[in-house]
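Q: Second attempt. The first request was missing the SMILES, so the protein and flavin-adenine dinucleotide are both included now.
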Amino acid sequence: MAGHRLRDYPYWRDQAPLRDIGEGGPLPENADVVVVGAGYSGLSVALHLARAGRDVVVIDQDRPGEHASTQNFGAVGRTIRHKFTAVAEEVGLPTAVRIFQEAQGWLDYTADFVEREQIECGFTRNGRLYGAHTPEAYEAMARDMEIHQKHMPVDTVMIPRAEQHKALCSEDFFGAQYLRDVGLLHPGRYHAGLLDRALAAGARVFGKCRADGFEHASDGHVVTTPRGAIRSKELVLCTNAATGSHHPLLRYFRRRMIPIHSWTLVTEPVDDATIRAAMPNGAMQLDTTLLYTGIRAIDQDKRILLTAQHLFDHPDAESAARACLAQATERMPALANVRADYCWVGTFALTFDWLPHIGKDPKTGVHYQVGMVGTGVPAAGYLGWKLANRILGKPEGETVFADRPYPTRPFYNGNPRWILPYMREYYRWRDNGAWRRALAKHGRQPAPSPAA
Ligand SMILES: Cc1cc2nc3c(=O)[nH]c(=O)nc-3n(C[C@H](O)[C@H](O)[C@H](O)COP(=O)(O)OP(=O)(O)OC[C@H]3O[C@@H](n4cnc5c(N)ncnc54)[C@H](O)[C@@H]3O)c2cc1C
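A: Got both inputs this time. The predicted holo structure:
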């Protein structure tokens, strides 16, 4: 429409603008702890260490929050990417139970943290639905949940196909899994709240200051930046998917992550009927395909956020927005005439074992919290608190996610861009083909091929 301007940056930043903090001028020469990265992870570590009396300096190559921490959807969950049974098979039942107990822990930690700290980020427990794209996907979720509930009860129920119309946007699913206690928040306001609390606790934050070099000695670390070098007793790396490859220390972590880019769109304000048609029970919705479509409501100004087009390289936000809307309207016709106001791309950091990792590198003594696996909205704050406690030598630092083997793959250099389009096409072919066949078998008109 003439005069309509699509914004190509995250919607959240209009309500919680990124701040120019500590830019220009030299860095201090010394600190107890230097934290590299001012997303949720780095700020959480910094906050808890500063409150414990440590002199903490946080540096970020961009403005604090400029990466995943203000690009995400704001889903506050208690899952990791793999099912309970798959994790149990991989690491054994007792460890799997601990992993899922701690995942519940990061949901509860975040709910408690934002309330205690009075961070006004609109945290609500709206729940989350996973619509099954085939009967087999529903059965697999139901079987997994039965075993999960036996070993570690969670507030999750299965919704059979006959009842899904009360919850899902479309009859094109084969039932759903409903996580009733998980929530949503405003990622920008949550990040701004963390930043304010870290600054108030005495942490010094320097934006536009890239860590270029790292030297390690028995008595500490020296980080070099274009604004000078800083010496510290402890060094914490919280660079996640933005980890560069310009230094061997960074390359070590980069080789252990797979950066996955993903497009997010926020619509113009819509009426209640459109929101109800898309999300009948108000819960966020995803589906069980690997390259899922996801939607959530943004309650305060009645917009819908949707995510789609994972791994697609669009030349600009306009083309990405068209493709995201086309993909979403295949199953959410209510969105057919809705306009996009914002569309942006962000990058997740997956790991090869699909687990988040924190720990201390035995060779260099560097602490790290890198590889948050798309669960960082609640996990990064929680694990940052754990990591701070580990540095302080406190028992609260105990966590199953610390110092686990951190796998990579032979010949993997941390830049999978050449292979991702092939993976994308394979998963689209596999999942959408299965979905179309299942719909045809059940007498429903299969949706057209998903939009590219
Ligand atoms: C599109 C998208 C949607 C997502 N949705 C969800 C969701 O709904 N729920 C959920 O739980 N998770 C979600 N995630 C994941 C979540 O956003 C991340 O796990 C989380 O933000 C990670 O926080 P972080 O602080 O570890 O990393 P980041 O926020 O990426 O921060 C890392 C920081 O390190 C800085 N840095 C890197 N290298 C250097 C250097 N050499 N020197 C100085 N600074 C450096 C970067 O500038 C950056 O600011 C999503 C992610 C994306 C991209």
